[in-house]
Design a protein that fits this description.
Elements lengths: L15 E2 L18 E2 L2 H9 L4 H48 L6 H19 L5 H20 L7 H13 L2 H12 L6 H27 L11 H10 L6 H26 L13 H17 L9 H6 L6 H11 L9 H9 L1
Helix pairs in contact: 2-5, 2-6, 2-7, 2-9, 3-4, 3-9, 7-8, 9-10, 10-12, 12-13
Length: about 350
């Protein structure tokens, strides 16, 4: 696509916006069209409707603040979900060691489990190969490793160590400030950097056009600077999920699952009595399902505003609430009957 001016490069593929955003391009025969992909010529025509290029450049420059705030909230929501998973994992792990009278894993082992578990959870949440998803994954993984390496080496208690890791993960301000700058002003000396810069410019351009449409229609969305549905949809396609409880919950669940799975696999590998076939390499789906069911049991029985406690874990052994049973036992239904918990075995017979 041709540059709109010497400072903007806007890929046509990213200009997926509401057709109503510019009345000049709305076909009279199709007033209900909700989305269109504009060709280079159509995009050039849209741009030409602005009074001048200086005004357009100003609007795009001003669009960075609200778009950046939206992306920052999304990444922070992801980090908070990861931190919450580490806090719940710390209680679950300490409880498991105490209840089973098992030997505690070394701090090095725990650090490896946390680092790889959080990375695997992020890979499941951001599976795409796009440059934005790659950029967020790279940032998060570097943050995880940095936090683990900085956590006090003289902490012997695994629970205290894990809680310190979670506290550092929750302190996101400095990391995010630097990352947001790099994301919106990347070095263009690499192919990824150039692609990232173009995509962020495309998002800001989408934001401007959507806002202009909202202003022209006196749409309620114009009263708030948050990106509208079309721009949010574009960001979602790029791997930036809207911040909020839904994003937090999915990160919390996937990360906690991977952390629990890491401990289960480590215990099996160190056991001298476990059958050779019963390991994470030979039966990866089996142990992943057990980890998912355990994470689901923890999350569904802990109010969102609270952290899991040892007493709650003790009461989770046998669920009686129908909705909690449904959520947990639906996950366990992928296991052979003998591997299901007693409460889910009873639930399966009744359903």
């Amino acid at each position: 696509m041709q540059c709109i001016n010497k400072t903007l490069l806007l890929p046509a593929a990213l200009l997926i916006i509401a057709l109503k955003a510019t009345s000049q391009t709305t076909p009279e025969t199709d007033p209900d069209c909700s989305q269109c992909v504009f060709s280079d010529e159509e995009a050039a025509h849209i741009v030409s409707t602005f009074d001048d290029q200086v005004e357009l450049s100003r609007l795009i420059s001003e669009a960075e603040a609200p778009v950046r705030a939206y992306v920052e909230d999304s990444v922070r929501s992801t980090e908070m979900g990861s931190a919450r998973s580490v806090r719940d994992f710390a209680v679950w792990y300490s409880y498991r060691v105490a209840e089973r009278n098992a030997a505690e894993l070394t701090r090095q082992q725990l650090g490896t489990i946390v680092g790889s578990g959080l990375s695997l959870g992020l890979d499941l949440l951001l599976p795409g190969a796009g440059v934005v998803e790659r950029t967020i994954r790279t940032y998060a993984n570097r943050a995880y490793q940095g936090i683990l390496s900085q956590t006090a080496a003289n902490v012997d208690d695994p629970a205290e160590y894990l809680q310190q890791v979670a506290t550092r993960m929750e302190d996101t301000n400095d990391r995010l400030t630097n990352f947001m700058h790099d994301m919106f002003h990347p070095s263009t000396s690499t192919e990824d950097g150039q692609a990232l810069g173009e995509q962020m410019e495309g998002v800001k351009f989408s934001y401007v056009l959507e806002r202009e449409g909202q202003r022209a229609r006196n749409d309620a969305g114009y009263r708030t600077p948050e990106p509208g549905p079309e721009t949010r949809g574009l960001l979602d396609q790029l791997g930036v999920r809207r911040a909020g409880s839904e994003n937090f919950d999915r990160v919390h669940f996937e990360s906690l699952t991977q952390l629990i799975r890491g401990v289960l696999c480590a215990e099996i590998n160190e056991s001298s009595t476990a059958p050779s076939v019963s390991n994470c390499e030979g039966e990866p789906r089996h142990w992943s399902t057990i980890a998912r069911a355990t994470a689901m049991r923890i999350i569904t029985t802990t109010p969102a505003e609270q952290l899991v406690s040892t007493s709650q874990l003790r009461n989770m052994v046998e669920l009686t609430d129908p909705e909690q049973l449904r959520q947990v036992c639906n996950v366990q239904s992928e296991l052979m009957f003998m591997w299901r918990s007693p409460d889910c075995q009873a639930w399966s017979r009744a359903n």
